[in-house]
Every structure is written in C-alpha cells, then in structure tokens.
C-alpha cells in the first residue's frame, strides 16, 4: 500500500494546478512523477479510456489516484455532465449522426422486416445507454484488503476533497458486526441472516407474538431507510472522512448495525471503497448492489488481479461441501413439497442431482494414492462429454439459469440486495409471503387447527455461494443469454477458456507443538484427505470484460506491475494509457545488487535441484549472516515457499548459522508462518517492528506472495535491507500452472497478442519478486539495500523483468567481497547522516 510521506497536509503547502484544463488540488507541492501520473489519469478520464499505472511505493500513487479522479468528478458535477475532451465530443457527435441515419433507414423498412428493425433499434438504444454522457460517473476504489482501505482513507483525509465527498465503504461482517453473540462465530453470516430474518418477521407480523418471543433477533438491525438516516449522521458529524473503525464505533454508540448501515449509504455515495474482489466477483457484485455501468473503477495494489479474475470465473467444490449442500437441498425439498411449491422443489432437485453426480465422479475416480497431491485432467472433448453427463451441457445452461431464478425467489424480502443470487446469502421462505402460513389457521382437509408454522429451512451461505458460482462459470462457458440458442453446435470461445480437473490431496493441518513442526520439516504431512471437482478458468478476460466493457474508465495501478506485457494482453482490455514511473528516492539512497556467488565462491543458482544441496544451503546462510552483520535495524529475507524456508532454516539451525546471526549481529529472528490468523500476524509484526527499531535490530524470514510481501509498510528502520533468495517461479506441480501454460500456447494460434505460456510463467515469478523487493525504501527520505541472491538474475532477459527503478540502480560489481564492501560503505554513509 502506497502512503505518502511528503509534508503533512497544510494549507501553506497545498498546491493547485491545471492539467489538460482540469484544476487539481493537491495537499503538497507535487513531485514530477506525480504530475506525470495526474496527466495520464486525467487524459484517460477525459477520453473514456483505460489505464495501466506502475508507480513505485512512496511516490504518492494513492494520493494522485484520489485527487485526479475526484477533481474530474467534481468538475463534471459542476457542469452537470462529464468533463470530456474535444476529441471525444467530436467522436460522440459523429456516432449520433450515424445513429440518426440508421434510424431513418429503419423507418423505411417494409412491414415484413418490422421485427428485425425493432431488434436493431433496441440494440442501438443499448449502445447509446452505454455511451451516455449525461450522467456523472461515480467512483469505485478497489484495494486488496480491508486493512488497506483504512490507509486509503488516511490519504483522502489529507485532501481538500474530503469535506465534499460522499463516502461509502463496503466491508464484511467479520470487521463490522457489533453483536457480541455472533461476531466470533465461524457461521457468523448464517447466524446474522437468521437473526435479521426473525427481526423482519417481527416487524411485518409474519409470525405470532408467541412465536416471536421464542426466536432471538438482532437488536442492531433496522430497515435500509432507517440505517441510511442513522449513518448519514456519521457523515455530517465526522470532522473528516470516516473509516471502518469510525463506523463500528458509531454503530455501537447508536445501536445501529454498521454492516447494513454502511451499505445503506451506497446509493448516494460519490466514491465507494471496497476490497477489489467485490468488484471482480459477479456474485459479490450483484449481492452488494454494485453497478459499474459508466463508473470510474480504480484497482489499486492490483499486481495479482489476473489471478483474482481467473478465480472469480472458476468453480471448485469438495466432497465435504457437496454433502452439506445436498443435505440443505433435501431439507428444502421436503419442506416445499408439502406446500406444493413445485418450482422450488424442481430447482432444488435439479441442483441436488448435479452435485450428487459430481460427488459420484469424485468417489469413483482412480487417483494415484502414492502422491500427496494427484490430479486427473480432461481434454476439451472429454470435458464437454463429462459435463453433459452431469447435466451441465450447453443444452442445460438456460435451464440452470431458470432454476436459479426459482431459488432466488426464496430470498428474504429486503432492500439490501442480499438475495441468494448475491453475496452467498441465505435461501429461505419470504417472510411476507404465505408459504407455510404466517399464522395458525384451520386445515381445509382435517378441519383441525394447524400446528404453528416452523421457520422455513435455509440454504447456508457457503452452499448458496457454490450454486451461484456454478451458474456463473457455466454461463461464462456457454455465453448464455435469454436470446441465445442452446443448440449451437460450434464450440464457443468461452468453452475453450475452461479446463476440468479432479484433485485429491492432503489438506495440511495447522502445525502446533514440537512433534508436528518436526514432521513438517522433514516432509511428513498430517491432515485431512480432500477430493475436489475444479472447473478452472484459464482466461482472466472472461471476468475483466464485464468491468471494462461497461465502465467509463478502468485504472489498474500498483507499485509492481512489471513485467507489464502480460497485463496488456491477459485482461483482454485496450489500455490506451500506460505509465511506468521512476522512484522519487535519489539514487544515492538505493543500493541494489545481484549476488551470484557466496563467500566460498559457490555459484548461487537457486533452481530446485541446487537448493537441495547442503553446500548451497550453507552458502546462502553465510551470505544472509554477513549481510545482517553489516545492515542495522530491520532486515527482510524472502524465500520461494514455506517448504523451502523451513528446510533452509532447519539446516541453518543445525549448522549453528541462526545462532551465529543472533549472537554476532544481535538481531532477533522472526518467521512468517503459514496460515497465521489476523491477530497472530499483527502480533508478529508488532514484535518485529519493536525489535527492528531498537538497538539490536531484527531479521524477518518470509515468503514471496505471503502476507509480509503484500502491502505492508516497512519504512525507515523497519527495513534497511531486503534479501531475496531465488526466483519465485510457480510450482510445476500445481496443475493450474501447467494448464495455464498450455492454454496460452494454444490460444496464441488465434490471438497473436497473447503472451506465450513460458512468458506468462516468467511474468508470475518476476512480479512476485518485484513485489517483495518493494517492501523497503518507502518514501523520498528513506534509504535501503536490495540484495538478490541468484546468479540467474545476471542475464539480460532477467534484468529486463526487474522493476525499472531497481534495474537502473543495479551496481556493476559482481564479486562477493567487493559487493559487501560497497554495501558496508553505503551503510556507513547513511548512518552518519542519521
């Protein structure tokens, strides 16, 4: 996450200047790179274009994104129409003339072609709607995590736009629930929906008073209008822009649910903040009521957006999930069969049969039981045959959509969009309907008084999510629409973008205790056997096209997009504006080196085979120890995987290298553990920061793509050096990696712009490397060393993939002793400055 370390916001330092006719207020005198970024963003917004922006951490990227987009939105509001370039005005006028001619031609059509003309007219109207220039785009600001939302809000508070901006934050219950009875429950979402449903029933009188007393309700929940009115007070009373913590505190003080209260502000907000999977995932997007049509969509810290897009379009289900889901569907069928709700029963039966058929395939498939992970993958032809046998062939696609609609009608009556076709919400009887009867009544057949109705059974959040995700994946595969023909014989491009895989693996349990950690260190895994059915999307454009085809402008930004070529092709979007910025830090404050040999002149080639050699492991340990002796305060060291880190640390401990580092340098050693919870991770960071800023210093061992490498701020003494070990190529053993490489090689035959499978594979490795390297040197006044331990990085091809601001600062020296001597002089010079 890129926070700005320029002068604190002060009217005396504020700056206002014109960019392409747009006045932008900035809280500081901007750097040159910031002005250049503003120019790119403004041009994109004025021309309704999409942008890729790579700007190193510490360059004020977040602040520039906020000020540029809010300034453009503010001017658009002032003139009551989007502020666009003369070039775009001419383009729209030309389109309007063309459409006018088209309409005149349509009116002259003969009567027998009236139907065709009407259809053409509707299509033209739809196109005009998508190109509307009479509505002011709202802004959606997506960031990787909830924690980073708070950091973005902190930056917004520095600006002059904070006081006039209507903000909404979309967040999950785990951060916003204030009901102490349920907020810590694993089934928090299901319990919330149950309590909310009971409260709604109480309000609308759908249950007898006796029945209501027997059911607990959530006292914090209220209808959307009341919640909106309550949280509008938060807007009015806040001295500055509020964040999630402010909303939770307000909710507790006024006994109003922050989760629903914040969502109630969404309709009137001019800018909405959320984790960016909320924007990319179609299920969550619909559940949250997010409409990206004609919106400005910003994805910040978006270096892994390709992965999120593929995951959002993929369907994965385990045997355990299937058992739970079919049990819930069985309860629904039994309940509604007695009430002659044939549509609901039919929908439940349809999905029940599909998931039971999937479970049967998983049970009958022969896996290699000698391996910890084994896979069975299908060819395209076999995949289609298998899906056909499951009732998921092309001819069933529209049937699936219709059954999904039948189940969606079961959702609770509300204005919060939390339908079954939504954020994985519950499937239950509508409290305002007569399903099952609301009050005790006479049975027409027996003449006896009915027993009081029980609450309709519900489909839990996880099961509802699985049904929705299956529908989304199948819809993308066959590109189903109301008008499409289910009998199309030719394979669509959507089908070619998916692969079917069956998996069997051991899900590793949390390692606790000396024995468990010892077994894990020698490769013995304890855990549960899992079998999964995976329908994997290979093409992130399947998801991303739903964004860029409807939005006014999409901005994909990060400190580390490099290698940038794959972003230009993988997302299937035309990025008219591409910006690669340099760092605001002076070159004298950056020490960057590739160390290809160790103190014993052993080549540090970090390929897998070499990494298993004990001499290589010892050489790496010696290098890390030497660096820790030279560099003060905090040092970060990144490993390719948890498994590789555990093996190396175990070896170093056995050889006394770890103890040597602690004794000689005085640094306390911390290690990132797999599966750490949020509180445990915060505790780890807190202890590390404390020691790193102390006289002894600290060494934090972490992994590429782990929590430490993603958006954590290690400014100043928290990271005076980053050490990276190896090049983090994705594992060949991961079936998804092999399938993706193969997919890109095949897809290039019809799309020459797509990068090859090998180029994609390398891009994943170097993007993770660059992300880790960016953890230190976080602002203009910061300094630090970047030390890459792998001889393969000396090749020109590898250097070209290293992010620009590091690449241009690499020293020429390659011999081990001279590199360390130059590092020592670099540290001495900067320690003297402090």
Brief synopsis:
Helix 16 crosses helix 18. The protein is α/β, with parallel strands linked by helices and 834 residues long. It has a seven-stranded parallel sheet with strand order 5-6-4-7-12-3-13.
Write up this protein.
The strands form four sheets. Strands 5-6-4-7-12-3-13 form a seven-stranded parallel β-sheet. Strands 14-19-18-15-17-16 form a six-stranded parallel β-sheet, with helices on both faces. With 834 residues, the chain is an alpha/beta fold. It is built from 33 helices and 19 strands.
What portion of residues is helical?
40-55%
Number of helices: 33
Quote the beta fraction.
5-15%
Mean pLDDT: 83
Q: Low-confidence parts, pLDDT < 50 over ≥5 residues?
A: 99-131, 204-214, 411-453, 480-491
Rg, please? 29 Å
* Overall geometric form: globular
Q: Structural class of the secondary elements?
A: alpha/beta
* Order of the strands making up the biggest sheet: 5-6-4-7-12-3-13
Please describe the biggest sheet, giving its number of strands, its sense, and whether it closes into a barrel.
Answer: 7 strands, parallel
Rounded to the nearest angstrom, the distance between the terminal CA atoms is: 26 Å
SSE arrangement:
Layout: E1 15-19, E2 22-26, H1 32-46, E3 50-54, H2 61-78, H3 86-107, H4 114-130, E4 139-143, H5 146-156, E5 167-169, H6 173-176, H7 188-204, H8 209-214, H9 224-237, H10 244-254, H11 258-264, E6 271-275, H12 277-280, H13 282-287, E7 296-299, H14 305-313, E8 315-318, H15 319-337, H16 342-364, E9 373-377, H17 380-389, H18 397-408, H19 461-478, H20 493-496, E10 498-508, H21 514-521, E11 527-537, H22 541-548, E12 553-558, H23 565-570, E13 575-580, E14 590-595, H24 608-611, H25 614-630, E15 634-639, H26 642-654, H27 657-665, E16 668-671, H28 678-692, E17 698-703, E18 721-725, H29 735-747, H30 757-773, E19 784-789, H31 796-801, H32 804-807, H33 816-833
Helix pairs in contact: 1-2, 3-4, 9-11, 10-11, 14-22, 15-16, 16-18, 18-19, 25-27, 29-30
